[in-house]
Amino acid sequence: MSKKPTLGVYGFTGCAGCQLAIIDCEDQLVDLFEAADIKVFYEAMSNNDDEAEVDIALVEGSINTEKQKEELLEIRKKAKILVAFGSCANYGCVQTMANDDGKWAERFKKVYGDVKFTVGKAMEAQPISNFVKVDVSIPGCSPSTPQMLMAFTKLLNGNMPVYTNAPVCLECKFRENECLLNKDILCLGPLTKGGCTAPCPTHNTGCVGCWGIIDEANHTAELKLMVEKGFKADDIIRKFSIFGGGKITAKINELMEVVQ
Amino acid sequence: MKTIKVNHLARVEGDGGITVEFDGNKLSKVNVDIFEGPRLIEALAVGKTAQEINSITPRICAICTVSHKNASVRACDRALAIPETKKTYYTRELMHLGEIVESHSLHVFALALPDFLGYPNVIAMVDKYKDIVMQALNLKKFGNRIMQITNGKFIHGENAVAGGYGKFPSKTELLEIKTTAESFMEFVTAATDIVGGLEIPSYLEEETVFGCCNPDDSNSFGYWGDSIIVSDGTIIPAMEYKENLIERVVPHSFAKRSLYKGKPFSVTALGRLINLGDRLKGNAGEYYRKYRNWRWNRNPFFNNLAQSIEMIYCLERIPVVIDKLLEMKDTPIQEPTRSDGRGVGLVEAPRGLLVHDYTFRDGKIIDCNIITPTAYNLDDMEKYIGIAAKNLNNAGQETEAIRFELEKIARSYDPCISCATHLVNVIKK
Questions:
Q1: Cys bridge to B87: A47, A173, B285, B328, which one at CB 3.0-4.6 A?
Q2: Based on the domain organization, do A58 and A135 belong to the same domain?
Q3: What is the ipTM of this complex?
């Protein structure tokens, strides 16, 4: 048998749920530790080798200190394939919902007052793609077990994972759910990347958009439908912005002007 | 001068570190540094609705996602005077018990036990302790399964909202949970005896104060309440937490710190058993009485044992809660009866007291304050690390050995640094 591929799991600012999602693969955890030579995985082990070059780097979290930015650049140099793992790494997630509104310093002061930190320099949180080239994207808050394991299997065998470009809406149909928009519940499923198997709409709670907005969709038409249904533009924009980050907020704002 | 540096505190959640400095033989500095970058969730909460905040705040931390959810829905219910049906109350409790089982089994078996048995991680233990590892992983999976059934997903589910649930678990699902809970009792009691039999180091002992939620029913153990009970006998009403557990910002940590009556305190599973353990019945009560001793009040390492005893409690409580739920009809999501008000949601996360405090105006948040157990524990953690560093150094221990022990202390608190922060730094001048 050829040499095992080397793997590093790295975490930046977030809830650490993507790393936890790996540990949560209880049935496959032993297999995963056997299939890969894991060099770094702080949340799970203490024999970590920070200097190691790795075939695959799974990077979780967003970047919001200078120290993290430097560490991320180092990981990029050491990794053959860099995977943006989860919503924070891919889009920034909830901590970036108000990015680029020019009020970050004000919010920082509101939470921490005037203390001069010695622990590092903080900045507005950003997805890792703002700093390094990302080779593979595994979305989700947190990533779903089947989608994630499929991607790991492909990557550990030297292949690239491929996803269908379908929204949550399709997965909801597969589960034979009655459409929540018809029940006047605001749901972002039609414009959100699938892969989660639609657990939220299945529980009668609207999709919150945590997989990120889907690229290929008629965004304007969907927003128009939502407005026609009677949902308020402000509520729609705010709901998209929570997981979409500053960029999506700007985009939805722009489209909404066309719609109205 | 001698310097030892480890770049990450391992087998904890999030990015934090420890700096201990000696000036000759005198301890000159003890800092638990929190590097995890600030996300400013409290500031971003402003302008959001109850349903939106229920979705945002669990993202503070994945291991405590359900605790944040329950604190959030409780705060919203109180602020907006939303009635809580019995069905909702017990489904929230079941969801919470799931998280305690999942988090404790992960911490005790996968994160802490390797320290005491001399392994770098839980998977390395498979060769010698295969049964324990596999059963522990199964137990953890069971905790996740409960959260998936009740909250829709095991990490960051959206089913629980202020006022109720989008969809309640089915009878079949409830019966599955009940049967599985009963099947784990033998393993958990045996595992508690293993943890109870571990030799607990004595180089750090000093009395401290413990706080936890005061359960609604004064005869019962439990994971939430509308006041805080302190081991000195004080009861703090939820709305007065700020005036009693005083928060401050320190330059070496992006997580805020808190003191009670000017002193550090602990909010842990150990704290819950010290304050409420006398109320435990059944196997949990038996194991509590078997292992309770005076060292518990002086030594944070007993937290691992406390977590094990709590797992027994959870497995006994789950069938009781399910029997109640099976008799109740599903209730629709309850609506707010006002749009202005302040509400404080207090719950016990697996690692201790968690506070969500929201003020609403016109149905949107105008003020939000969240304090996590790891933030509450940081001062006490620093205190014990200082005592240990001093004693181990005086005993002539090598810096590498000291470093390992200090990491172990931090780990015993089951810190969750996303919630609040990895690096141990022992500097000998």
A1: B328
A2: yes
A3: 0.93
